[in-house]
Amino acid sequence: AGGQADAKRAGEDPVPDLSPAAIAMRKLSAEDAVMEPTVLEQLRICLRAKKLQPAEVVGTLSGNYHGYAQMCNLMRDWHCFLGDEPKDVDREIRGNLRSLIVRNFDPDKFSSVFQSSGPPRWVDSMVLDKEWRDLLYELAEKFPKNEFINFALELCKDKVGLEAQKAGTETASSNLKIFDDKFKDALSDMLTANDQEITPESLERFTDLACHNEHAFVYVLSVLDAVSKKRKLNDGQAAAEQSWGG
Predict the structure, then answer these.
(1) Which terminus of the chain has fewer Cβ atoms in its 10 Å neighbourhood, N or C?
(2) Can you list the positions of beta strands (E) in the chain?
């Protein structure tokens, strides 16, 4: 307290209280904190602190409740009541929600959730939904090292299988199974051109994948070198058999 008073007199910002109870109280003071997956844990921390009264904690939590999610559900019900198709309304809501998530996604917040209480329970249902899986692939391109995104992709692999055609280059470069599938598709596009010239699009797709980083480049070179050696070996055997038969 004395340090904070000195800081105020000096015209500086006060030193923030970093005690567990103060940190938990700041989290409970956020808008719609009651909707957060860690709310029970933050409540326990605050209520165990002797300097905080239960009424103060509950008042803070209830006072910052705005019910944005419940408002969205209410608006959805109104649209359906007025004659809009429920599927169309749901698609519109999901589209807007997806745009908000992509624009405002904060990887640090999800990392803190993992550190405090493990992965949220709703991740399981999220990876089973096609639209939300598409969102995960999109976020993986922007945040390839995020712990939550990587965990969700692992769940996708375990529950529904990773979809290489939806994954971007960044995601593929960090997952060998996806990279192999995209590499085979890109190579197949060039090799099955029906004796026509390789299109700039297929070449660009292949080079973007192969040259994404040094690991991808070395891997692609190794595969192409192995294929080339096998092709030469097969050609040599065929020539030998033809010569022997002649």
Answers:
(1) C
(2) none
The label of the residue with tokens 């009541």 reads: 81
Distances (CA, A) of 180 to 47, 210, 239: 52, 11, 32
Give the integer Cα–Cα distance in Å for 31 and 6: 31
| 119, two tokens | 């992965």
CA pseudo-torsion sign 135, 140, 145, 147? positive
Using CA atoms, how far residue 105 sits from 14, 45, 92, 93, in Å, is 29, 27, 20, 17
pTM of this structure: 0.57
8 Å CB contact between 172 and 182: yes
Identity at 180, one-letter amino acid code: D
Out of 81-85, 86-90, 137-141, 172-176, least confident range: 172-176
Q: What is the DSSP code string of 159-187?
A: HT---TTTS-HHHHHT-HHHHHHHHHHHH
The CA distance from 53 to 46, in Å, is 8
Best CA proximity match to 106, nearest among 142, 133, 79: 142
